[in-house]
From TrEMBL:
Annotated InterPro entries: AB_hydrolase_fold (IPR029058), Pept_S9A_N (IPR023302), Peptidase_S9_cat (IPR001375), Peptidase_S9A (IPR002470), Prolyl_oligopep/macrocyclase (IPR051167)
Any Gene Ontology CC annotation: cytosol
Identification of the protein by name: Prolyl oligopeptidase
EC number(s) stated in the UniProt entry for this protein: 3.4.21.26
Amino acid sequence: MSTSENMQTIAAPIDQDPYLWLEDIDAPRSLDWVSERNASATATLGSSYEFALRKSVIKEVLDSDDKIPLVSSVGGYLYNFWRDADHPRGVWRRTTDADYRSPDPTWETLLDIDALATEEDIPWVFHGAEILRPTYDRAIISLSRGGSDADEDREFDLTTKTFVPPDHGGFFRPESKGGMSWINRDTVYIFTDFGTDELGNATLTSSGYPRIVKQLSRGQQLNDATVVYAGGDNDMYIRAFHSHTPGWERDFVARSLAFYRSELYLRTTDGLTLIDVPLSAEAGVHREWLLIETREPWVVGDTTYPAGALLITRFEDYLAGGRDLTVLFEPTSSQSLAGASFTKNHLVLNVLDHVKNRVEVLTPPTDRAGSWERRPAVALPAMGTTSVSGVDSDVTDDVWVMTTDYLTPSSLYRLAVDDLTVPGGLGEPLKTSPSFFDSSGLTIDQYFATSKDGTQIPYFLVHATDAPRDGSIPTLLYGYGGFEISLTPGYSGGLGRAWLDKGGAYAVANIRGGGEYGPRWHQSALKDQRHKAYEDFSAVARDLVERGVTTPERLGVQGGSNGGLLTGNIYTQYPELFGAVVIQVPLLDMKRYSHLLAGASWMAEYGDPDDPAQWEFIQRFSPYHLVEPNRNYPPVLITTSTRDDRVHPGHARKFAAKLLDYGYDVTYYENIEGGHGGAADNDQAAFMSALAYEFLWQRLTPVTTPDGDKS
């Protein structure tokens, strides 16, 4: 059934939800239901030799000591967070630049998360660290219980490698969604749940994120901190940060009103000054420059700048009222801006051209009358994904370059930015990930499927070079299609070992809602146009069949989060196109989503279900309300996490319960830890991945018994 055909109004009253009790996350009745479903899933999928083998080979990849240790350069050290078999929760560590260049660097362990979890009897997950500049002797460490978005911040002494206790003057932020960042050694910005304000109002937004940011001095009580900015209840997120670039130190307040709508303020001793750009634009300041990335057409004087453009001007001139804007990038029908990264003296642009990276090095003029110099990066591969970022834009023009594709393990380079523009300038990689599967007989192709409205939808296909086009290949189709996020080729040892090595093919659909062609690609599938993302995905599925790669019975689909909403809609609206569906950490109840955890922050993407006019179109992509009895739905695996505090596990629970009561083939598994990522350590991650691959392989390659039955 196509989206346009599935326009019926939901028959049952929305407020009569017999499964609402499953939204009570930790209620004994809910957890008993979860335990029963987990036991069933483990017995049917997780108890076989094949499952154990899949999990083992995936975990071997995740635990490998030969992976590239990705680093950030701060104050003369390279910092890395690392997980392996001996450190399942990970260690935060550092080394020197010279040592990192050696085949086997010597690492200085700063914080062992496994030891901390054991010592404090809390399943800590590392959420990152911010190091104090310019002394580099303190850090703010973020720690999450079980991987939830909510975390706490602690001050850490990099000299003694110990936390600084609050009763000894150490900075500390209690557990909440929010953050803390350095202003200077004795002052921080803190944005968190402060309880209620002096008027009794909540200090979190309706999305559950910080509404207020304060300035906190060392030794000061949290309630006595100075309010810097207070947003409204319906804002999404308020934060503040300090730019530590020497000679360009500044303070900013960022106000997110919703996804794709924000304000940036310069904070001085005179107060806050709004940087006057469109709410939909993204503004950033580096040294003397103001960068503006547009999401909608913007008229300035007699000039209209298109959506998806990157503009630059001198920051102080702009604050004074000047509007002398230089266009650094303007989108085309095939190109969009993937990213921009400063080095000390240059700006590197990364462009997607039909979902393939192209890089340019830009150099600012030496005087106000000059023009920006542009040089293409000719040293980079023409195929696959390439990322380029400045090593430390305060001190060097060196860049990190990472290259990969579905069949080529990642390679990391460090080089001077000028070398990008010289043939052969890439040189030998500094680090290379190992090959975890034999890709010699595999090929990557890019095709275009025609969606219902005629739009060409690109997708990648990884398959055996000599595979027959007789529809016999079990194929996994992956998608996301939301929040302007692009899906580009990347190497996965787990996918290779658990799927490609078995003879399966793998496809990735670059459907509307994503960012592959910039804001226009994303905006064309928002709210009442959401169905276009699902029409795109179904078009790719049909194209795979028409090309003889696979058949509906051998075609599986997988997606998580917004991709779980995608696969939920594929399950309910296009069941005839697929043989098995995997739905992970999903949104599914689109009537309730804006009232659950962070859901209110996504109304710019999906709409407001409490508005009757908007519910008219939202209900048409709400899988929880679209599912019907007596339909020929394919088998489905639904997974989530009890500790997911971004997308409520009630979505997955209620959908599974409803399907089970209708008598459909449903496998459900809920990981107790993991947050929105679904797993808190490598063992859990390997288990969850193996569960999906085993489910898909069983359903898409059924065994035929001597009497002709399939099992």
